[in-house]
Amino acid sequence: MSVNITFLGGTGTVTGSKYLVEHQGQRLLVDCGLFQGYKQLRLRNWTPLPIPAADIDAVLLTHAHLDHSGYLPLLIKQGYKGRVYATPATCDLCGILLPDSGHIQEEDAAFANRKGYSKHSPALPLYDKHDALVSLKALHAQTVGKTFSPLPGWNATFSFAGHILGAASILLEVAGRRILFSGDLGRPDDLLMNAPDLPPDADTVLIESTYGNREHPKEDVLAELGPALKRVSARGGVAVLPVFAVGRAQAVLYAIAQLKASGEIPHSLPVFLDSPMAVHTTDLYQEHPDAHKLDDDGLRALKHAATMIETPEQSKALAKRHGPMVILAASGMATGGRVLHHLEHYLPDHRNMVILTGYQAPGTRGATLADGGTFVRMHGQDIEVKAEVVQLQSSSAHADATQLLKWLKHMKHAPGQVYVVHGELEAADVLRQRIERELKWRAVVPEHGSTWPT
C-alpha cells in the first residue's frame, strides 16, 4: 500500500511550503505556506492547487510563519472543510499573523489602487482580514509530544523544533510508514529558543535546507549588533531593522536589552517596536514558558526593551522624531508592512542605517539591500539607498548546515530516503551532497510539483 508525497511548495525555494501526503484516497497537507520573493514565485499564490481544496482531508502546520501557514485562509476560501492541527503556541501565533496578513494585503491593494501603480484594475488582495479570521476556526491545538490521529488510521506527533515559539517537527505514521518533517529547525545556541528535540527514527525524512550551504559565524549576535548600533548612535542617525514579528523581533529586542545592560550601547538610546503583531507576540512568551529558555527576569527584560508602537498615528509620529533612535518593524525581508514607510523615509540619508537581521530570500527588497542595491522599489517609486546597510550574519533562527547534519545523525537507524526541501537550489543541493557523502544516505532535492514515494 503506497504512501506518496507531492511537493507543492518549499522546493527550490524557502517559501510556499506545502507537502501533500496521499494514501488510499486520503489526503493530508503538511504546511500551507505563501510564496514570497520573486514575482514568478508570488504568482503561484494565485494559481489553484492541482487538487480541489475540498478534497484535502486534514492539514498539519509545523509553525506559524507565513511561508508555512499564510495560504491557509485561501485554502479555506477555496472550500477546505477539515481541521488544521498545530501546537498551542502556533495556534496562538496564527491568531496574530493571519489576520495581519489579510489586513496588509487589503492595505497594499487599496494603496495600489489609490496611487494607480498596479497593472491590475482594480488590484485585489489574495485574501482579506475576514477570510483570515474565518480560517482560525479550523485550528485545533495538539500537545507537543502527545500522539493524535488527524485522520482514521493516521497518527501524528509534534516535537519541539526550536526556531520560533511553537515551531515543531512532525512524525507522521500511516500504513506502516514513518515520515518525519523537520519543519524549520532552530539553532542549539539560540538566544531565546530551546534546542530542537532529537529526531525519532523514520523511513522518510524531509529536512529543511535554508542554510544548507553555509555555517554561522562563531561570533554571536551581540558582537555584531553592538558596534553597529554604537556607530549609528554616535552620528545621530536612525537605525531601521526589518524584523519578522514572530521570533526575530523578540531575539533582537532581547539582544538590545543585554547590550544596554552591559553598557555596550547607551542606555538612553530610544528603541521602538513598531509592529502590533510583534507587540502581541512578545506577550505570548509569558503564556508558553515551555517553548523557550527565558526566565522571569529575561521575560521582563524582553518586555521593557522598547517602546511598543501599535496605532498608525504612533507609527507616523516616529518620522517627526530626530535620531539617534532604533526602529524595529515588520516585515523581516521588507516585503510589506510598516517597515516600508520607515525605509522610504530614512534610506536617502547617509547618517542612517538599515540592519538586516536574517535570511533575505532572493527577489525581496531585503535581498536588494543586502546585495548593495542603490535603489529599492517601494510604493511604485525608486527610493535611493544612501543609508549604511549592515547584514547580521549571526542572528539567524535556522540551524546551519553542520547543525542540520548533526540533528540527522541522532537518528538511530538510517532512513530509506531523505528529501531536501525549504532551501534555494544551491543550498539544497549542497546539503544533499553532504548527506550522501557524510551519512551515506540516499538524498534527493525534489522538483516543484513532483510526486515521490515514502
Which percent range describes the beta-strand content? 15-25%
- CATH superfamily label of the largest domain: Ribonuclease Z/Hydroxyacylglutathione hydrolase-like
The counted number of beta strands is 22
Overall structural class, as computed from helix and strand content, comes to alpha/beta
* Overall form: globular
Spans of at least 5 consecutive residues with low confidence: none
CATH fold annotation of the largest domain: Metallo-beta-lactamase, Chain A
Helix content: 25-40%
List the strand order in the largest sheet: 6-5-4-3-2-1-22
User: Number of helical segments?
Assistant: 14
- In round numbers, the mean pLDDT is 94
Write up what this structure looks like.
The protein is α/β, with parallel strands linked by helices. It folds into two domains: 4-214 and 397-453, Metallo-beta-lactamase, Chain A; 221-391, 3-Layer(aba) Sandwich (Rossmann fold), CATH 3.40.50.10890. It is built from 14 helices and 22 strands. It has helices spanning 39-42, 66-69, 72-77, 88-115, 129-135, 221-234, 248-262, 276-287, 296-303, 312-317, 339-346, 365-370, 401-409, 425-439; strands spanning 4-9, 18-23, 26-30, 58-60, 83-86, 139-141, 148-151, 154-160, 168-174, 177-181, 204-208, 238-242, 271-274, 307-309, 325-329, 353-356, 375-378, 381-384, 388-391, 417-421, 443-444, 451-453. The chain has a seven-stranded mixed sheet with strand order 6-5-4-3-2-1-22. It has a seven-stranded mixed sheet with strand order 7-8-9-10-11-20-21, with helices on one face. A hairpin with a 2-residue loop joins strand 17 and strand 18. Helix 4 (88-115) packs antiparallel against helix 5, helix 4 (88-115) packs antiparallel against helix 8 (276-287) and helix 6 (221-234) packs across helix 7 (248-262).
